[in-house]
Structures are given as C-alpha cells and as structure tokens.
Automatic annotation (TrEMBL):
One of its GO terms (molecular function) is GTPase activity. One of its GO terms (cellular component) is mitochondrial outer membrane. The keyword Transmembrane helix applies. Atypical mitochondrial nucleoside-triphosphatase (NTPase) involved in mitochondrial trafficking. Probably involved in control of anterograde transport of mitochondria and their subcellular distribution. Can hydrolyze GTP, ATP and UTP. PROSITE patterns: EF_HAND_1, EF_HAND_2, MIRO, RAB, RAS. It comes from the Eukaryota. This is Mitochondrial Rho GTPase. It is an enzyme of class 3 (hydrolase). Belongs to the mitochondrial Rho GTPase family. Keywords: Calcium, GTP-binding, Hydrolase, Membrane, Metal-binding, Mitochondrion, Mitochondrion outer membrane, Nucleotide-binding, Repeat, Transmembrane, Transmembrane helix. It catalyses: ATP + H2O = ADP + phosphate + H(+); GTP + H2O = GDP + phosphate + H(+); UTP + H2O = UDP + phosphate + H(+). Gene3D superfamilies: EF-hand, P-loop containing nucleotide triphosphate hydrolases. SMART domains: EFh, RAB, RAS, RHO.
C-alpha cells in the first residue's frame, strides 16, 4: 500500500473547489473563500486507511498551465469538480478536463478520476442521469459523488472515496463492461486459493477458510458467518460450494460480489497480504526480503523450512508413492509464474525407477538452490506462501546463515549440514559418471541421459557417524588456465583421473600443485574406471607416488560399470573430510598420509571427551544428593553402578580404537 495519497481538485472557476477543501478542514462553510487554498496534509491517524493525505487545490487565476501540468503528474487521484446547476461545467468535464488529464499521464499508468458534483443544495434534482454515460465512456472514472460544501453534505465521503480510489482501485480488478474480474486478478486470486488450500483437494474447508480469514483480517469467522458466506454462494451458482467447502469458482464469485458492492478494500486486503502490489505483481520486498550474507558463509534451510517443504510435498504427492510424477510437479508449481525446474533436475537429485523425483531428491533440490542461490530460494518460498502459512515476517525466516568457515577451522568442528565438493579432472576422466553414481545410477543408466538434460551438479545425503549431511558435487569444466574463485571455493576437492588413459593424471597433478598444494582445502584423488586395465601414467610420478609425496590419501578406486547401484563409501569419506577440514594438515596414523583415519581418531577423541563429561555429571549429581542420602545400601548400589558405567565406557572406547 502507498505511504501517502495526493489528491488534486480541478474544474472550472466558481464550481466550489476551494470551498470543499475549507469545509472539510473547518467543518463549516467559509464566509470568505480565497482564490486558492494552500496545500493541506491530513495526518494518518485521522484518516480511515491510516495513510497521510495531501489535498491540493487548483486556481486558474493564480496558476499557469505549466503549474497545472506539474500537479497532474504528481497527483495520485484527481477530482474533477463541476456544479450540478451549471451545464457548461458538466460539459467541460468531457470536452476539456478528461482529455487534458489523459494527455498529461502515461497510458499504462492512468490516474484514477472522481467526478464531484458540488452545490447539490441549490437544486432538487440529481445530475446522475447526465453523469452515468460519462462514467461508462471513461474507464478511468472510479465513481461520482454529489455533495454540498455549504451544507457539508458528503464532504468527508468525497475525500474518503478519493483516498480509496488510490489505495483500493477498481481498474486492476474488475471490468465494468463485462461485469467480471480481469484476467490478472483471476490469476492472482487463483494462486491465493491454491496456497490456502492446504490439503490440495480443490476446496477450502471450514478450517482452511478460518485460517485464510485470520491470516488476512486477523479474526476468524464464526460458524454461522461461515454458513452465511457459503449460502450466498449457493444461491448464486451451482458449483460454488462442494462437499461443504468453497470451490475456486465460489472463491472468485465472492470477490466479484465484494467489488460489485463497492467493497474493493476486502479484495485488496487479501491481495496485499499475499504480496501483491497495485499492478497485481508480487512486490520485490515480498519476494526478495533482506538477508545478511557475510563473506565465507553459506546458506541452508532450517528445520521449519524442511517441515514446510515436507507439507508441500505431501500436499501434491496424491498417489502417496513418495515421488513426484511430472503431472504432480506441474501441479506443485502452478503457483509460480514459470516452471522453475528443468529436465536437468532429474539428473541432479535422486529419482525412482521411473525417473520421478523422490522425496529425498525433492528436499535435495531445495537444499541445492538455497546453497547456490539464496535469492532464488527466497523467491520460490515466496511463491509457495511460506511466510503466510507459517505466519512469519518474511521467508527469510526459513534461511540459516552459517558461521564463517575460518571459525569452523579454528574450533575444529562445524555446525553446517551442506558440504560442497568440486570435482576436477581432464576431459573423459569420468567426472560425470562420478556425479551420477552418487545418485545411484550405474553406467548403463547414465547412457540413457540426453545430452541436453545433463547436469553439472549432484546432491544427496550421506551419513557420517550417524549424522545426516548433504554432499553437493560440482563438476568443474577442465579449463586449467581459467579456474575461477567459484571453481576453487569448496569444502573438499575431488581430483578424478582415468586409469586407462595414460595422459589423464597429469591434469590432476598440475591442478593440485597450482591451486591446492598450499590450500587448507582437503583433496582426494579418485582412480576412475577401475574396472578397466590400469596403464602407466605419463606424468613423472605415479598417482600413488604423487599422493605419498604430498601426504594425500592413496588414489581411491572407483567404477560405475556395475550391474547394481555403484558403491557409495567414497562419498561418505569425502563428506567426512569436508566435516573435518583440519584433518588433512597432519596425520596421526602410522602411514603418515591417511586423512580419513585422522577424522576417525578425532571423532573418537570427541566421543571420549563426551563420555568423561557425562561421567563427571553423574558423580556431581551423586555428590549433591549426599546430604540427603544416609542409607549405606544406596551408597553401595550407587558406587557399583558408577563403576559398571565407567568400565562399559572404557570398553566402548577400546572397541572403537580397535576398529581402526
């Protein structure tokens, strides 16, 4: 809604423009009327819509044409005043004033007009018969008001209608000639209906109607009021109410009825609550709320966001197969102005045997979007109505900004849930196969992917010591001389080479020495196509010797040429290295090069520290209870229990150490 309203009064001399303004302000007819009233500002707290209102007078005697044109360009609404007892002033409305105003305003953003018939106290008849044809001829005319500055008749109403014409205009909503809603209004209200239809059954039941009412107007409807609304719809159309709920047709009919009865503000209140501006477009403030993004931080979805996405998935998974068919995906995105997901998404996240996006794949895609482009994620959540359904100030409440990565390195632990792995390698080394294998596709399944449907990203979940984490793989194009900061910014690097190609490893070695040898980013070397015969690499050092020299983990054999789904152990190792990025700096195991083992050792040390802290709490609680416990039998039981607990904990630690 606008922050203020500017009303301009124009018309022929002596029709009473200035008298109307002065009567409004003083609440009495002035004895002496100046040629022109000074600009008046009515404070927000005394206007019905709580918006400051500026009222501007025009005087042909005091102002030039250029000044008039400037005022027309600044006005939000223009009142054309005529005298009901002066036919010439009425004729001037169409012969002079409306053409003049239209010439001075843009065709796409016409200013609403209000026809004001003043001096109604001087005649016994109405001028409406003369004015109605004019209103039908010009769509910019919002309404017509007959008033009297002398008797104070309809003075407040005049300026209320003027304010209302700006804040709640009819033009964008309704076509008077066709007596129906305009297509843009139908489109906006249809989205609002679908967002409010929480179970996606095509009707708004009583609970959904009450939620809608409370969301838009801060008050629920009484049961009898709900029935009255539905009865009004039943009396006027056959399919407006279904299964005792309001259908889309009934919902649209109600808003048509509101507008026809002059209650535009009801429809506008709904539209603005759901993010629409005066042109029925979702506002930038609604779609893209401010979110602070410090450097070296990432963006993730929080718990409430995942709960919301789960409810959206359940709402559209009509066959309950835990996957979204192409038709269900289209239905989900009907509240969007465009289809946000292309065919590449089906090769970016997990799918079922039919190639449909699974529930986990669906969450993964949202996680990917939030990580790579948080503004787009905010936009998508806006279309889905997150802030409305979850009653938040904006969809920014769905986003968590992680702490600076340097702090994670200092504290040697992270609170993040999404980790990025950039996959580098020469052409034909097997990078794409490595990404698709993460989604469970073997070589045979990968060959069915169309070239224009391929994706450079793959994301899914892995489990590191019982914790679910998202691993995001990004295939970097093999252009050694033009690796950008985005190509290098990640949590872990995967260097892929083809064991059957003697020239393949050289690219990995050069990339590592050029960009990562002094970096704190962990690196892992993957020996792809391990089902083929391994040939000697042309590089001066063999892959194993290179890894040993630079204290890297030995090359990890990998193949996706299998009958079933490829093995995913390597992705767990990559995620582990990303979670513990300090592990690659030095090694605690005998080989002096094993980063993965160090991660395990670190975690075991953390488990031991946690166990010791828990044991201290038990002993402290026993000590606090000592004053009230005098029974020696209890002391014996407590001591034995603590001893057993300590022995079991030590045994667990020994078992974990032996696993290495």
């Amino acid at each position: 809604m606008r922050k203020d309203v500017r009303i301009l009064l124009v018309g022929e001399p002596k029709v009473g423009k200035t008298s109307l303004i002065m009567s409004l302000v003083s609440e009495e007819f002035p004895d002496e009327v100046p040629l022109r009233a000074e600009e008046i500002t009515i404070p927000a707290d005394v206007t019905p819509e709580r918006v400051p209102t500026h009222i501007v007078d025009y005087s042909e005697a005091e102002q030039s044409d250029e000044q008039l044109y400037q005022e027309i360009s600044k006005a939000n609404v223009i009142c054309i005043v005529y005298s009901v007892n002066n036919k010439k002033s009425i004729e001037k409305v169409t012969s002079h004033w409306i053409p003049l105003i239209n010439d001075r305003t843009d065709k796409d953003s016409r200013v609403p007009l209000i026809l004001v018939g003043n001096k109604s106290d001087l005649v016994e008849h109405s001028s409406m018969e003369t004015i109605l044809p004019i209103m039908n001829q010009y769509q910019d005319i919002e309404t017509c008001v007959e008033c009297s500055a002398k008797n104070l008749k309809n003075i407040s109403e005049l300026f209320y209608y003027a304010q209302k014409a700006v804040l709640h205009p009819t033009g964008p909503l309704y076509c008077p000639e066709e007596k129906e809603l305009k297509p843009s209004c139908i489109k906006s209200l249809t989205r609002i209906f679908k967002v409010s239809d929480l179970d996606n059954d095509g009707i708004l039941n009583d609970n959904e109607l009450n939620f809608f009412q409370r969301t838009c107007f801060n008050t629920p409807l009484a049961p009898q009021a709900l029935e009255d609304v539905k009865n009004v719809v039943r009396r006027n159309m056959t399919d407006g109410v279904k299964d005792n709920g309001l259908s889309l047709k009934g919902f649209l009919f109600l808003h048509t009825l509101f507008i026809q009865r002059g209650r535009h503000e009801t429809t506008w209140t709904v539209l603005r609550r759901f993010g629409y501006d005066d042109d029925l477009e979702l506002t930038q403030e609604y779609l893209f709320p401010m979110i602070k993004m410090p450097p070296d931080c990432t963006t993730e979805l929080n718990h409430n966001a995942y709960l919301f996405l789960q409810s959206v998935f359940d709402k559209h998974d009509k066959d309950r197969d835990c996957a979204l068919s192409p038709e269900e995906v289209k239905d989900l995105f009907k509240v969007f102005p465009y289809m946000p997901w292309g065919p590449d998404v089906n090769h970016t996240v997990g799918t079922n045997e039919q190639g449909w996006i699974t529930y986990q794949g669906y969450l993964s895609q949202w996680t990917l979007t939030t990580y790579l482009d948080v503004q787009r994620s905010l936009e998508y959540f806006g279309y889905l109505g997150y802030s409305i359904i979850y009653e938040q100030e904006s969809q920014a409440a769905a986003i968590t900004v992680t702490r600076n990565k340097r702090i994670d390195l200092q504290k040697k632990q992270t609170q993040r849930s999404v980790f990025r792995c950039n996959v580098l390698g020469d052409r034909g080394s097997g990078k794409s196969g490595f990404l698709q294998a993460f989604l469970g596709k073997n070589l045979q399944g990968q060959r069915r992917i169309r070239e224009d449907h391929k994706s450079f990203y793959a994301i899914s979940t892995t489990y590191v010591y019982g914790q679910e984490k998202y691993l995001l793989l990004h295939e970097v194009m093999p252009d050694f001389d033009f690796l950008s900061e985005a190509d290098l910014a990640c949590d872990v690097v995967c260097l892929v080479y083809d064991i059957n190609n003697p020239s393949s490893f050289e690219y990995c070695a050069k990339v590592y020495k050029q960009y990562f040898i002094d970096s704190k980013t962990p690196c892992v070397v993957v020996a792809a196509k391990s089902d083929l015969h391994e040939v000697r690499q042309h590089y001066s050092l063999s892959p194993h010797e290179f890894c040993r020299k630079h204290k890297l983990h030995p090359p990890q054999p990998f193949t996706c040429s299998v009958t079933d789904a490829p093995n995913k152990d390597i992705y767990t190792r990559i995620t582990t290295m990303a979670m513990y990025p300090h592990a690659h700096l030095r090694c605690m195991c005998a080989s002096n090069r094993c980063t993965y083992c160090l991660c395990q050792n670190l975690l075991k040390l953390e488990l031991l520290r946690s166990f010791k802290a828990q044991l201290r709490r038990v002993m402290f609680n026993r000590h606090m209870a000592q004053a009230d416990l005098k029974n020696s039998t209890f002391w014996l039981r407590a001591s034995v229990g603590a001893t057993v607990f300590a022995v079991l904990g030590f045994a667990m630690y020994r078992a974990l150490i032996k696993q290495r």
